[in-house]
Write a structure and sequence with these properties.
This protein has helices spanning 206-217, 261-270, 288-292, 298-304, 319-334, 347-356, 366-380, 424-439, 513-528; strands at residues 3-6, 16-22, 29-30, 35-40, 45-49, 54-59, 66-68, 72-77, 103-109, 123-126, 136-142, 149-150, 155-160, 165-169, 174-179, 186-188, 192-197, 224-230, 247-250, 256-259, 337-345, 386-388, 393-395, 401-403, 405-407, 410-412, 415-416, 453-457, 476-490, 493-507. It has 535 residues and is an alpha+beta fold. The protein has a 6-stranded mixed beta sheet with strand order 9-18-10-17-15-12, with helices on one face.
Length: 535
């Protein structure tokens, strides 16, 4: 049966979208998870993936065209299937359409002896896939409770993914009849998150049967019922300001203490006693900024940790922390790492940076110079700009450099696309912009995807020398230490000089020792003679 895919709503404010490019053409085979198109929203250009298998039978919006949300985007079905009845002036027949997002109708097989059916008007809301790498999510807080009226566009819950805590809005109207995943609980994508429908509807057993129905789908298609699923159809990586709803909590004096759900969770994570926080919100409620700006007094700090008491504070792992741990473990234990380090003479680099920064319109850092030097060295040593696969070594002809950025929950790696074509100032401006987005949790998956080499710099923290774990599927990562003033030998005499140690971690499957060493030699030539980077 053909599936109608409409223009998705990829951000909370999106009213229309522009197809930047199609990654599939009519007649192509499509599998679940394949990227169909890149769609430009009011906030970013985002990849839109398919949640269906089949053949792309029809494209309703061509590249460069703009259309409102819910307008027919494409149709996927069986090869040769007649879809003439689904196309009517660019609109899909409502009785036949299965909307990709935000409202989706999917045929779900139901065993003939199923104990209950989905009543008319009831909508099963599942855990959405809010990022391209998300496999499970954690409900940080519910903004609605069972029995509340839900209007389309209202925020149902705050969901923590592997990259950010994001708002999840409803695309349906009705009453919140059941909550399937409680605050603090984690569940896989597509697990039952909630059920919305007419007030008073009996939804007993629907959540349990929905799970068994999905399992039976691949085994039996003899009988089916249409279940509406309210889920995000593609990655949404544009976090917005979270609503500060009021949640009363009793204080020591018995009076009610008003705290927003987000502030309450943040206080618990930071070990902050809410009784000591002064709320600045309406009616004195405690909001997010109150937790961020909270400074305990000395007496409060002393009271928090008793002398001589052995204790632990358990901080629940965020989805981002889980993902980082998983990927670093996979990289460390699958790629045979080895390390090469050299000490660079930074005197000329210091002088060059000082001269460049005398222009009031330009401000570059040593990190910008390192990134530029790495990009140019990769052009001369393509073996370092590679990836390992079981069948072949892939040499990237483009140079995309990832720059490691520390955030509260770990480490993110924004990517500078075609860094070898950028000037010092362009590298600096892009790094500043991407790092700011990463720390504010506003960076998109596309801005962190596709690196071919990575630079990690701890020099600004005074770290003289360190090693890094390779950012898979890259073959190498450069660790940059601090510039150190010390005695050095120049022209047979001991003088005061400035040096910096850099360490190259390589995957021995793709980068031999001699190859890594030659890369570092080229890097040294560029850094110790910065003028050569302008040639």
């Amino acid at each position: 049966m053909a599936v109608v895919i409409n223009m998705p709503r990829l951000s909370d404010t999106m009213e229309e979208g522009t197809v930047a490019s199609w990654l599939k053409k009519v007649g192509d085979s499509v599998q679940e998870g394949d990227i169909l198109a890149e769609i430009e929203t009011d906030k970013a250009t985002m990849e839109f993936e398919s949640f269906h298998d089949g053949t792309l039978l029809y494209i309703g919006i061509e590249e460069g065209q703009t259309a409102p949300v819910d307008v027919l985007l494409a149709i996927i079905g069986e090869k040769g299937e007649d879809i003439s009845g689904l196309i009517d002036g660019g609109e899909a027949r409502k009785e036949d359409k299965a909307v990709e997002t935000p409202k989706e109708e999917v045929n779900v097989a139901v065993p003939t002896d199923a104990p209950s059916e989905v009543p008319e008007g009831v909508i099963v809301v599942t855990m959405p896939r809010l990022s391209d790498t998300m496999t499970e999510g954690t409900v940080a807080s519910w903004l609605k409770k069972v029995g509340d009226t839900v209007v389309e566009g209202e925020i149902l819950a705050e969901i923590e993914t592997d990259k950010a805590t994001m708002e999840f809005e409803s695309f349906n109207e009705g009453t919140l009849l059941q909550i399937g995943i409680k605050e603090g609980e984690s569940a896989l994508v597509d697990s039952v998150l909630a059920i919305i429908g007419p007030k008073g509807t009996d939804v007993t057993g629907i959540a349990e049967n929905y799970k068994s129905d999905n399992e039976a789908f691949s085994e039996s298609k003899e009988t089916s019922t249409e279940v509406k699923k309210d889920q995000a159809a593609s990655p949404i990586e544009v976090p917005v300001a979270l609503p500060e709803s009021v949640e009363p909590t009793p204080n020591n004096s018995g009076e009610r203490l008003f705290v927003s759900p987000l502030a309450k969770r943040m206080a618990a994570e930071k070990g902050i006693n809410l009784q000591q926080v002064k709320g600045t919100g309406e009616n004195g409620r405690i909001v997010k900024n109150d937790i961020l700006n909270f400074q305990p007094s000395l007496s409060q700090t002393e009271a928090y940790v008793a002398v001589g008491e052995e204790r632990f504070e358990e901080i629940k792992n965020s989805q981002m922390r889980k993902t980082i741990a998983k990927r670093l473990g996979e990289s460390k234990f699958s790629a045979p790492h080895y390390y090469l380090n050299i000490e660079l003479d930074m005197d000329h680099a210091i002088a060059a940076r000082k001269a460049i920064n005398e222009d009031p319109t330009v401000k570059i850092s040593f990190n910008d110079m390192i990134v530029k030097a790495c990009a140019m060295a990769l052009r001369k040593h393509p073996q370092v700009n590679s990836q390992w696969t079981l069948d072949a070594i892939r040499l990237a002809k483009h140079i995309h450099i990832g720059v490691a950025v520390a955030v509260d929950d770990g480490l993110l790696v924004p990517v500078l696309k075609f860094a070898d074509q950028m000037s010092f100032s362009q590298i600096g401006a892009n790094v500043k912009d991407l790092a700011g987005k990463a720390r504010a949790k506003k960076i998109t998956p596309q801005e962190m995807d596709g690196s071919t080499f990575t630079v990690s710099n701890l020099g600004m923290f005074g770290i003289k020398e360190f090693t890094s774990i390779i950012n898979a599927p890259n073959s190498a990562i450069l660790s940059v230490g601090a510039i150190v003033e010390k005695p050095v030998v120049k022209n047979g005499a001991i003088v005061v000089g400035n040096t910096m140690t850099v360490t190259l971690a390589c995957d021995h499957r793709t980068v031999d020792g001699a190859t890594g060493a030659k890369f570092l030699q080229t890097l040294r030539q560029y850094i110790e003679n910065p003028v050569t980077m302008f040639v």
